[in-house]
Specification:
alpha/beta; 9-stranded mixed β-sheet; 9 strands
Length: about 240
């Protein structure tokens, strides 16, 4: 398996996705766009494309953020999907998958930062790749937006603050608005980058402050993510 990561910011790290890749012995490559790395021109050497999060949204222009090109990323995502590759988007990455498929992102009803539960929908409970999450699972969040829905998209999980937490766009294409890749190290990096903003959000119902964020245990969530990824890879290889 060859896994390619698109990384938008140094503090939006692959986290548990990278742990999983290393544990399985898969090959990895990166487009660290914050370092002005180029996106791949072709997808021949990619089996799984993982598009990570970032403070941008799909409407962010190159003038607003010179290292981020939403249109170019959408083109790459579209190529990967059309070539039958596995594609996983996280937060901003999930929104970009929707945009690549013609579904415009939207604003979430609530900003969510921290560990809060998601609940599987009937579609989620029937999905063999996420059913092991259980009816309810505590997961990581750090977002203000949510992915758009295509005509055939299936919402697999929701939260109290956001109605689109996990979206299946195809049997190999998934958008995670939530952050199941969080680890203590990743969260520390996010806090360091965003602490001034956090201090302005003490009145929000789904925003944890730094001490609460650091106290969370992300291990169970990470293990559930690893199982999802193993199942995704198995289906990709079978295809």
């Amino acid at each position: 398996m060859k896994v390619h990561f698109i990384v938008h910011e140094s503090f939006e790290a692959p986290g548990a996705y990278e742990t999983w890749v290393q544990a399985r012995g898969y090959a990895t490559s990166y487009s660290r766009v914050y370092l002005n790395d180029r996106l791949p021109e072709r997808v021949d050497d990619i089996d799984l494309l993982v598009v990570l999060g970032g403070p941008q949204d799909p409407a962010t222009t190159p003038e607003q953020c010179p290292h981020f090109n939403a249109a170019a990323e959408c083109r790459l995502i579209g190529k990967a999907i059309n070539a039958g590759k596995a594609v996983v988007g996280v937060c901003l990455g999930a929104q970009l998958i929707g945009e690549a498929l013609g579904a415009q992102f939207g604003h979430s009803p609530e900003k969510e930062i921290g560990m809060y539960p998601i609940s599987l929908t009937a579609e989620g409970k029937a999905n063999s790749k996420v059913a092991h999450f259980g009816d309810v699972l505590d997961v990581g969040h750090w977002h203000n937006d949510m992915p758009g829905l295509t005509a055939h998209a299936k919402i697999l999980a929701v939260s109290e603050g956001c109605p689109r937490q996990i979206v299946e766009y195809g049997h190999l294409v998934y958008g995670f608005q939530c952050h199941m890749e969080f680890t203590r190290d990743v969260v520390d990096q996010l806090i360091a980058a965003c602490e001034p903003e956090l201090l302005t959000l003490t009145d929000r119902p789904f925003v944890q402050q730094p001490a609460e964020l650091r106290a969370n245990d992300w291990d169970e969530m990470n293990q559930k993510l690893f199982t999802f990824l193993d199942k995704l890879v198995a289906e990709y290889q079978a295809a």
